[in-house]
Amino acid sequence: MTSRTSTTGRTGTTGTTAAGNGTSVPSPDPGVGPLLRDWRERRRVSQLELALRAGSSARHISFVETGRARPSEEMVLRLAEHLDVPVRERNALLLVAGYAPHYPETPLDDPALDALRAGLERLIQGYEPYPALVVNATYDVVAANRGIAMLLEGVPESLLAPPLNAMRLTLHPRGLAPRIRNLPEWRGHLFAQMEREIALHRSAPLRALYDEVAAYPVPEDRHGGEPAGPVPHFALPMRIEHDGRILSFISSIATFNTPMDVTVAELAVETFHPADPETAKYLHSHTS
């Protein structure tokens, strides 16, 4: 049910391991240099190009990466910014370099985030009758509107117990999976998305979630290869059955620009837009 794409995204790589809470922590003595080099190579940026972006020299970047020079806290943050390193991983780089984390990780229920939560609720409620939800870094649902509740009608209570997880709800054989008419394509899309996230975020919980949902049995095709119907050329739709009707959605993701908090950086708002007039008409009539 979710399709997550972000320039700051999230299989394992050398240099760090993941703690049980999803926070990346350094492996024994890797040094910050090799980790910065790993991020630079991931971004396909040369030492010279990175130096020009960061106002440094290729020689100094080389010295930092090989451990011949210890970067200042400001330099670690500057290089991480120009390499588009996720906020959580920037804290990990600082720890390895011997500095304190720079970005806080405020619990979502903290009063300091009251305005943020209220804004997100207004946003997804304003999107009704179309489905919209907010997920965190491991696809746990932190907010959802009535459009999502409609799609979840008939899902067993055992799967709706908190914390709700968008991937489990979508791919579980007793969840939405049996009702998704183009399940092979949508399932493959979701796995590819999670793989991209795992490649960026060294998160043990995210890897565990991937392994769990990948092991779910795929429901039998009850529709005998029913034609998919017209498909938008600009995006893969999710075609799902609801109360005997086939609804078609395309999804989009919104994340926060320049987040200064780990929790906020890892939130994403996913909205599902009708891919055809029939779906839009059905949703409006169903909620009127």
TrEMBL record:
Residues 1-23 have a biased composition (Low complexity). PROSITE patterns: HTH_CROC1. This is Helix-turn-helix domain-containing protein. InterPro entries: Cro/C1-type_HTH, Lambda_DNA-bd_dom_sf, MLTR_LBD. It comes from the Bacteria. Residues 1-35 are annotated as: Disordered. It comes from Streptomyces vulcanius. Residues 36-90 form the HTH cro/C1-type domain. CDD domains: HTH_XRE (cd00093).
